[in-house]
Amino acid sequence: MATTYLSRTFGTATSRFTCTASMWVKRSALGSAIFWSSYNSANYRFQFYFDGSNRLGLLNVDNGSNNVELITNRLFRDVSAWYHLQAVIDTTQGTAANRVKIYLMVLNH
Questions:
Q1: How confident is the model at residue 1 (pLDDT cuts 50, 70, 90)?
Q2: What is the pTM of this model?
């Protein structure tokens, strides 16, 4: 496992309520793996991961509470495919269905 990572300081407390994350991911093996994470402590973290059932998950913990936690129904078992993921989070939205949206594009070789 590579230990190289990019480190960036969190923004202001109010900026944690809205964000967009976009990335390309190619699985190298099946099973659980955190592939993108912003980590300050166990009480403040944001991460994309694949769980042990090969589903995509998104977790945001703010001040020790899971204010966003989603796990897809779709399985991600193709280790030859590239996946483009984009998450748009705006926890200030009044309607729960509008607070977190995940967009996905699959590119098979």
A1: low
A2: 0.75
